[in-house]
Amino acid sequence: WDPDREAWRAPRRVEGPLTVVAMEGNVSIRNGPPWVQLHVMVARQTGPGTIETLGGTVASARVYAVEVAIDAYEDVRLERDEETATGLSLWK
Q1: CA 85, 81, 34: angle at the middle one, nearest 5?
Q2: If exposure means fewest CB atoms within 10 Å of the residue's CB, which of 22, 31, 52, 69 is most exposed?
Q3: CA geometry: angle at 52 spanning 14 and 66, to 5°?
Q4: What would the pLDDT profile of 65-75 be if each residue is shown by its tens digit?
């Protein structure tokens, strides 16, 4: 997110074999349909004995295998609304 432009920065494409080190996010309601926001930290080998870690918000991905556990709450409805101060779609 670029606060000066109030817009998302262009996604960066990361290719090659990656290992998911950590992942978290949520599914909420945004202007009607469900909206998924996913944050991830991945690692990859860049040379003999050299590991690089990368992290950010996932724009799109293609995976070979990933396991996810989802906590669902029946008594909470996560809805988003545009906040005028930041331009972000935040929980109400």
Answers
A1: 145
A2: 69
A3: 60
A4: 888 898 888 88
